[in-house]
Design brief:
Helix content: 40-55%
Number of strands: 13
Radius of gyration: 32 Å
InterPro entries: aa-tRNA-synth_Ia, Ile-tRNA-ligase_type2, M/V/L/I-tRNA-synth_anticd-bd, Rossmann-like_a/b/a_fold, tRNAsynth_Ia_anticodon-bd
Order of helices and strands: EEHHHEHEEHHEHHHHHHEHHEEHEHHEEE
Protein name: Isoleucine--tRNA ligase
Structural class: alpha/beta
Number of helices: 17
CATH architecture of the largest domain: Orthogonal Bundle
Shape: elongated
Pfam families: Anticodon_1 (PF08264), DUF5915 (PF19302), tRNA-synt_1 (PF00133)
Number of domains: 4
Largest sheet: 4 strands, mixed
CATH class of the largest domain: Mainly Alpha
Strand order of the largest sheet: 11-10-13-12
Distance between the termini: 80 Å
Keywords: Aminoacyl-tRNA synthetase, ATP-binding, Ligase, Nucleotide-binding, Protein biosynthesis
CATH topology of the largest domain: Isoleucyl-tRNA Synthetase, Domain 1
GO molecular function: ATP binding; isoleucine-tRNA ligase activity
Length: about 450
């Protein structure tokens, strides 16, 4: 009850029988919040050592909305000052207000309120958490847009899930790993673990989460993509486990599911934080810089391909790069043939040549010989067949019968390379007639109409 109605209410004292009424001198109710660090320990009547000895005062950090600058943040400081105490908290995480996607305050009357329970049901709590960690700095207002939740789901969680699916599909098979890629991704794991720890120590939560995002992106879009079926299952499992540990404070449910799905025992939340770093020895700390240079040169070469209108699936003969650049950028590439091979594979080049005489950083030979053109046709066919395998929901180990109807010129290319084509798409036979099929494709190749179909063998 509130004034003035409460002033008409009287109670009888159970001890003396006198009339009791409201005390008119009431302290600001915010005083309770400011006294919290002491009141919760019944200080100074009990637990004096906990407060005076520093075990429970000051707090390591407090987190509240930005409106609490004149509320709880202030009253904690005011009460501490009145008691001639030091600062009641060492760090403050101030959170910005939640707005709708146009920047308006959410209001039922405006009809722009988002039901948080619907978002939790649709995307899961971890996606919502990660979105708020990374959308902008903590103290900035948040313009909530459901489309951003979808982006967060796809950018991190689905990318990481697909990396796990790749591990579960190919990780237990015996392959010949690409050593330099394994060394690099372990280096990336360790560097990310160090950066995440350093950011969390200073309460830079968003920066820490973005470091994890970058590692997940590198794992999927570079390590796995460049390793393909030569991936090291041992290395991939090690990195996925490390990511699960790093993600545990941010996305506890997803991290736990990933950790246990990798065959680890106990809970990820019971692991030692420092154990997320790999103990494996890497070749050189310079490897991260060298790999970044490989990727930079690859992006320059791919841009040249685009200018020339040549698809990436079309092999080319040669890429020349300048070995002597400022700050010795390409020095590591000279020493490491594996890095040059990675660059060649990424740009789909037969050979990378180091040449100081070229103008600019790179020079791409775009001349198409008949041999290169035929190889490009074959790769395009492989891509189409792999798409049909996916449409037919085949498993990687499923053998198929491949059916085609092709113009005479393309038929010659397939005839000359049928063994390579069958190996690439796991086909038992290639037939050049229409039969019963599980999936088909009518399209054009080299501006000529083609029909391709598949059925399980």
């Amino acid at each position: 009850m509130h004034r003035p109605f409460v002033d008409e209410v009287y109670l009888r004292c159970s001890e003396c029988g006198s009339k009791m009424e409201r005390v008119k001198e009431v302290a600001d109710v915010w005083f309770d919040s400011g006294a919290m660090p002491f009141a919760q320990w019944h200080y100074p009547f009990e637990n004096k050592k906990l407060i005076d000895g520093g075990a429970q005062y000051p707090a390591d950090y407090i987190a509240e909305g930005i409106d609490q600058t004149r509320g709880w943040f202030y009253t904690l400081l005011a009460v501490a000052t009145l008691l001639k105490r030091d600062l009641p908290y060492r760090n403050v995480i101030s959170l910005g207000l939640l707005l709708d996607k146009t920047g308006q305050k959410m209001s039922k009357s405006k009809g722009n309120v988002v039901d948080p329970w619907q978002m939790l049901q649709k995307y899961g709590a971890d996606v919502l958490r990660w979105y708020f960690y990374t959308v902008n700095p903590p103290g900035e207002p948040k313009r909530f847009d459901e489309n951003d939740l979808r982006k967060t789901l796809n950018k991190l969680f689905m990318l990481l899930y697909n990396s796990f699916v790749f591990y579960s599909t190919y990780g237990k098979e015996k392959h010949k790993p690409i050593k330099v890629l394994d060394e690099w991704i372990i280096d990336r794991l360790n560097a990310t673990a160090d950066m995440v720890t350093a950011n969390l120590e200073v309460y830079a939560i968003g920066d820490a989460a973005q470091e994890i995002e970058a590692l997940v992106d590198d794992l999927s879009r570079w390590y796995i993509r460049r390793s393909r079926k030569n991936v090291s299952g041992k290395t991939l499992r090690l990195v996925l486990s490390g990511i699960a540990k790093m993600m545990a404070p941010f996305a506890p449910f997803f991290a736990e599911a990933l950790w246990l799905s990798l065959g680890n025992k106990d809970s990820v939340h019971l692991q030692d934080w420092t154990s997320m770093r790999s103990k494996s020895k890497v070749k050189s700390s310079k490897l991260l810089t060298a790999m970044a240079e490989v990727r930079r040169l690859a992006s320059l070469a791919l841009a040249e391909r685009e200018k020339a209108g040549i698809k990436v699936r079309q092999p080319l003969r040669e890429l020349r790069i300048k070995p002597c650049l400022p700050a010795g950028r390409n020095k590591e590439l000279e020493k490491n043939k594996e890095l040059l091979n990675l660059l060649a594979d990424e740009v789909n080049i037969k050979e990378v040549v180091l040449d100081n005489k070229i103008n600019g950083e790179i020079q791409l030979d775009t001349t198409l010989t008949p041999e290169l053109r035929n190889e490009g046709i074959l790769r395009e066919l492989v891509r189409m067949v792999q798409g049909l395998r996916h449409d037919a929901k085949y498993q990687p180990h499923d053998k198929i019968i491949l059916m085609m109807e092709l113009p005479k010129e393309l038929l010659k290319v397939v005839d000359a390379n049928s063994r390579e084509l069958k190996m690439a798409v796991n086909a038992k036979n290639v037939v050049f007639k229409k039969e019963k099929f599980d999936a088909e494709l009518n399209t054009k190749l080299e501006n000529a109409p083609v029909w391709i179909a598949v059925k399980k063998f």
